[in-house]
Amino acid sequence: MKLLQLFFLIVLISCKRKQADLTGIYGDNKALAYIYKENGKEGLLDTNKNILIPAQFDYIEHWLVDGLIRVDSGGERVNGGDFVGYNFKKYGLITIGGKILFRPKFDDLTISDNSALVLLDSLYGYISNNGDWIIKPTFKTAYPFYKGTAVVKADNKFVLLNKDGQRIIKETFDSIYSFKNDVAIVTNNKKWGLINYRGRLILPLGNYRGLGEYNYYHGIFKKDDGKWYLIDTAGNIPVKEGFDSVGTQAEGLIIYAVGLQNGKQVKIRLN
Asked: Which Pfam families match (predicted)?
């Protein structure tokens, strides 16, 4: 009897240990899969604890983006007090459903917009969330896709590409900054402007005295009159009178312009 009790105790301890070794990967406030460890390697289980990917990677990232998860072999864990993380040696990619899209081979990998920007042998390219090449490594400089639009540098000029690898517009630029709130700052021939992700210049290139990135779907620019003006993502200027200084803030769903006009503090609702 005592031997039988001891056997069940060992099994119980073993089960608890295995459960403790599991790390959940969550989405919509529920576990979508689990990372498990075996012989120093990590693998993936489904929600019923069935093996999706046998333990074979040194590291599986504990979160997913667009159903994709980064993995590595050969890197190292970092525990430096204030910083706890992992240094990748090479980046691979798996799906939450247990499909290995790429074993670790990329020098960098950023997931965005149901795709991944990858760096291989000093060149950037793009792969889909199915593991197919959208654009093979071609570019020295490239940004992740944003709502179907990627920024790349080709022939020393920046251009906008769609997910077919085609240019969205013919225009090229000396620089394009990352998209934020659907808009990016562009420069050409020492002139500045604002472009949306569809390729429309919502603020024409010009010699503005200042230009700010978008917050709460409103950017700012400074005209020759020395005043700041707000501009929304459609290119509209919601407040015609200029500001001495201005910013945006949100209170719930309401967005306000807060700043100075003619030396007086103002707060103007924008939506």
From this structure: WG_beta_rep (PF14903)
Residue 9, SS3 per DSSP: helix
**Do residues 209 and 196 make contact, with C-beta atoms less than 8 angstroms apart?**
no
Helix boundaries (H) for the chain: 2-20
Cross-sheet strand order for the sheet of 228-232: 210-215, 218-222, 228-232
Question: What is d(CA 83, CA 80) in angstroms, rounded to the nearest whole number?
Answer: 5
Q: How far apart are CA 25 and CA 69, in angstroms?
A: 9
Coil vs helix vs strand at 81? coil
Contact in structure between 52 and 45 (CB atoms under 8 Å): yes
> Of 182, 218, 177, 213, nearest to 197 (Cα)?
182
Query: Of 86, 59, 83, 56, whose CA–CA distance to 71 is shortest?
Result: 59
The pLDDT of residue 20 is 53
In the numeric block, which tokens belong to residue 31?
């576990």
Q: What is the tens place of the pLDDT at every residue in 116-173?
A: 999 999 999 999 999 999 999 999 999 999 999 999 999 999 999 999 999 999 999 9
Whether this prediction's pTM lies above 0.70 is answered by yes
What are the backbone dihedrals phi and psi of residue 234, each rounded to the nearest 5 degrees, phi first? -95, -5
- 72 vs 21, residue with greater confidence: 72
Q: Which residue has the higher pLDDT, 252 or 81?
A: 252
Residues recorded for the chain: 271
